[in-house]
Amino acid sequence: MLKLSNEILIKIFGYLTVPEKRTCASVCEKWRCLILGGIFYQDLQVYGEENLLLLNKHFEENVPHRNLVQSLRASQLYARAPLVNTILALPKQFPRLREFVYEHHDSDTYESDESKIVIDEDIAKHWQGITKFYHYDKYLVSSKLLKYGGFRNLVELGVSFGGKERSAFKCDALIQHLSNAPKLKMLKLGRGAMSLSHLHQLHCNAKQLEVLRFSDMELEPIVGDRQQPLISHSDTLKELQFLECTEEYNKSMLEHMEYPNLKILEARLRDILQGDYCEDQLVKFVSHCPHIKTYNVNIHQITPAIMNAMDASGIKLKKITITQLPYTHPLEQLKILHASDQKNSISTMTLDYSDYCGKEPLNVSTMFTLMSKFTKLKHFESFGRRLPDFPLGEFLYKFQDMETLKLKDWGIRVGPNPLHGSIFKRKKELKTKLKSLTLVNVTCCEESMSFISETCPELSKLTILEQFSRDFRDIEFPNHNFESITLKKMESINNYDCNLLPVAMGRSNDDPYNHTGFHYQVTDDKGTKWYKIVGGIQEKTFFEECPKSENIRMISVKYKSCATLKLGDAYI
What we know:
There is one protein chain. The chain has 17 helices and 27 strands. Helix content is about 25%, strand content about 25%. Among the domains are: about 1-40; about 40-120. The longest helix is centred in the first third of the chain and has 13 residues, at about 50-60. The protein is of the alpha/beta class. The radius of gyration is 26 Å and the shape is flat. The two termini are about 15 Å apart. The model is unreliable at about 415-420 and about 490-515 (pLDDT under 50).
């Protein structure tokens, strides 16, 4: 298969099933680079103007393939008028295109003659099949397509205004025509400025909106209007997000919003030292949103006032994220949450200590004691750093009904005493209901994997992501039937969101296995095979034991069966 040319692969790729495409992508780096970015034809990613022109040429010569394209992402582009017109013509070329993401190059400062960009009813009619559109709105493309009826079936729209310059004008033009997108459910606005009057008009024109996200937004003052801003109300909105917005923006928007059926509230900053504001606004906001189920806010820590407002409005949270501020007591917010009625309903909890650097040490046992009062808790995630080791045995003993555990940047030990913990001695008696375990950049003691294997008989999903400076422990679960196992070496891992890890990342030259890779000895009830993974790519498969070398790290993986095994980026 490796001798097949890229041209032959392209010809056959559109007829392969998804598992077969995954197999092709893991065969060799040459094919992976060709395939990476999506499922060929159905899901295309194009980087740069040159590749976009090559794409056009390919489909000019292969007209039947046009009907296969359903999703397209075009990125690293410079917004010159001819190229924008080429982009606008793509839905006509691909009649079944439904999802379209159009991204500019970060360094794009080129100003083209906007009058040369043609958007009219004839252009817009070919956009009426689009259900998802994301782009950097340098030339009012979205507002003009809305104006001419191009988004009749649009469900999801994401617009980056590209900075404060002219963004209020762009925002006004966009919102003015939102009523021409009657099926719009999700709207994401970023890198711009908008006013409270814009927000009010937005809800007047998009009455069916369910998800609203603001990222990196600033407040545009209302000029010449001294009237009290109106409260923006929506009965349909279910999810609201503020990401990296200014303090003034967050305060003003939360102060004038009322969403009685909202279920998810997220308001986050990467630099939490810039937070700790908006308590009064959050108290007022949650008082009018009795159906909130998910609360992920770090612009202000959890306080008794916020929790009392939730309890008074009848909120019963299901999911909460607590972000520890650097110099506050590490358990203060958890204690406040514990004292509220919310402890009786929360089933999913995330404790983020990644930025904590206070003098007060974290007492993990006390943390577990407080958590044990959350009677419905089934899913737990925690980010650590510079903290005591995570006593896995104590955790599993106290939370035997826990179904999901995710740990990042922790060290794991089995019991209070790594060698003689009483819990470790009772491991044969301990049987938990844990079904999913994710370890990201976690160091484990020698006993940890065998302990998990013995105490978690229902474990069916295992994910281990490690940085290059750490070595995998052998993964042996001889009696387990897994739905999925993922093992991957990572050069760096994003602290902000453990669930948004990149598909592929580079490797450091300091990694001794950078060029020689890892060998995996995989044993199941059908026998043993050996796989060589280099840079995340499956390079070879051995049916006999591969040659040993001091430069090759051999990792043993043992299980009874596994439906989906992923080593690096390769599906085995």
